Amino acid sequence: MVRNLGETNSVFNQFIAEIRNSELQNDRMRFRRNLERIGEIFAYEISKTFEFQDVEVTTPLGVATMPLIVNQPILATILRAGLPLHQGLLNYFDKADNAFITAYRKYDKNEAFEIRVEYISSPSIEDKILILSDPMLATGASIMKTLKGLQALGKPKHIHIVSALASIEGVEFVKRNVFGKNVTIWVGGLDDELTAQAYIVPGLGDAGDLAFGRKSD
Questions:
Q1: Residue 93, domain member (yes or no)
Q2: Nearest to 96, CA basis, from 109, 105, 86, 104
Q3: Is residue 58 part of a domain?
Q4: 208, 81 in Cβ contact below 8 A?
């Protein structure tokens, strides 16, 4: 299942527009905060799919019965670009356990690349709700390599993949490779094109560099 929040008119699209805007991208703090706000909205929408149960809450004047989340999710993200989006999700799922993964593109002299996953810090994900965030879903290779790496830590009950922007090609790649599994892909916008270097067009550029500064080659 793919859920594109950008298809509905809301303030959410203002935040997507601002992270795309090449002039506004010069303000790193604003870029990070917009990714954070996007994560918060994703968290709100994802929470509607969770299981809830009534819990009694004592107030100064009595007792209120409130429906609360039964099982907190595990929030996972790919370093470093995923950190602001992850923080937005964590702002709302503030009781969640967290997982961090290093995945990056290793280029050869012909500018071809492979995805390498070198480090995973995560609790067990067995029978848990896993929310994996990465601001850009381009080819889908990073997401799939990350999910493969997490397999050693259990089989989750449901996987939510969260990306601010995605390519149609990347989404289709993920759908083909997770067929038959309990997976929902959440995006803020779907773009048609990938460049030869596998960057999304029109996209927004390199989310990690825009959030934290340009890395050395």
A1: yes
A2: 86
A3: no
A4: yes
- Number of domains within the chain: 1
Over the stretch 94-144, which tens digit does the pLDDT of each residue have? Answer: 999 999 998 766 655 555 556 677 788 899 999 999 999 999 999 988 888
User: What CATH code is carried by the domain that includes residue 159?
Assistant: 3.40.50.2020
| High-pLDDT (> 70) share of the chain, % | 93
Look up residue 104 and give its amino acid.
Answer: Y
With residues binned 3-state (H G I as helix, E B as strand, rest as coil), the percentages for the chain, rounded to 5, are: 35, 35, 35
Give the up-direction half-sphere exposure of residue 149: CA atoms within 13 A in the CB hemisphere: 24
The residue among 125, 35, 140 whose CA lies nearest residue 89 is 35
Average pLDDT, the chain: 91
Mean pLDDT of 155-180: 91
d(CA 9, CA 19): 17
Query: In this structure, what token pair is assigned to residue 52?
Result: 């809830």
